[in-house]
Amino acid sequence: MTLTAYFKAIVGGFTVTIETENSNKGTVSSGGVVTPGQSIAIKATPAKGYQFEGWYLNGSKISGLGASASYQPSETCTLTAKFTTVSMPISGPVILCNGSTGTFSISNSAGATYSWECSSNLSITGSGNSVSVKANSNGAGWVRIKLNGEIVFLRNVWVGPPLDLYISGQDSSTAGGPIFFSANTGSTNSSTSFSWSITPTTGATIFNASVFK
């Protein structure tokens, strides 16, 4: 008995186009033509300062598809890779007294370039992922950084006059009675905060903080 195998030619295939929403944010592998039932390898590589967010088909995100994956199309299509900015907030004070200096920094990113900028009432000394910022005049200000020339992170800073702290209170009290103290900075800045502490000799505790601004 003779067995003969017959084959049927597959006419055409699915063209898969792979693109990135922004070449500055990341790159992708090339697409190609896939015969029905076969898969194509896809890959998205984010640029420094960005992370892969997802693959999109006709405006909708494809669930469960990672940056490097195998995709089996059911028709000719275009896959779009989208990227988001890596969250790297600036750390540093939000209030500076006029004439004082604060340190502002951002997480170190290997191979990244940093460009710091500030409002006109501040000045910056240093470079890299950590700098010193000096307050030169009162008012609202800001510090921002460009990562690799385009990613901007901003931190608002309020500059106010140096605070004169006045503490008033009683020198003594009856046994078991309270001693009242108050603090006054003369500042109208609603962000002024106070932290009270005592060194007790007989188990005294702070039961209420009376603060006047």
Give an overview of the whole structure.
- This protein has 213 residues and is mainly β.
- The protein folds into 3 domains: 14-85; 95-160, Immunoglobulin-like (Sandwich), CATH 2.60.40.1080; 163-213, no CATH class.
- It is 0% helix and 45% strand.
- The protein contains no helices and 18 strands.
- It has strands at residues 14-20, 26-28, 32-34, 40-46, 50-57, 60-61, 68-71, 77-85, 95-97, 101-105, 114-118, 122-125, 130-135, 139-147, 151-160, 166-169, 181-184, 210-212.
- A 5-stranded mixed β-sheet has the order 3-1-8-5-6, with no helix packed on it. It has a 4-stranded mixed β-sheet with strand order 9-15-14-11, with no helix packed on it. The protein has a 3-stranded antiparallel β-sheet with strand order 2-4-7, with no helix packed on it.
- It is elongated.
- The protein starts with 13 loop residues before the first strand and ends with a strand.
- The mean pLDDT is 81.
Distance between the termini: 105 Å
Distinct helical segment count? 0
Number of extended strands: 18
Structural class comes to mainly beta
Q: Could you outline the blueprint of secondary structure elements for this entry?
A:
Layout lengths: L13 E7 L5 E3 L3 E3 L5 E7 L3 E8 L2 E2 L6 E4 L5 E9 L9 E3 L3 E5 L8 E5 L3 E4 L4 E6 L3 E9 L3 E10 L5 E4 L11 E4 L25 E3 L1
Parallel strand pairs: 1-8, 9-15, 17-18
Antiparallel strand pairs: 1-3, 2-4, 4-7, 5-6, 5-8, 10-13, 11-14, 12-13, 14-15, 16-17
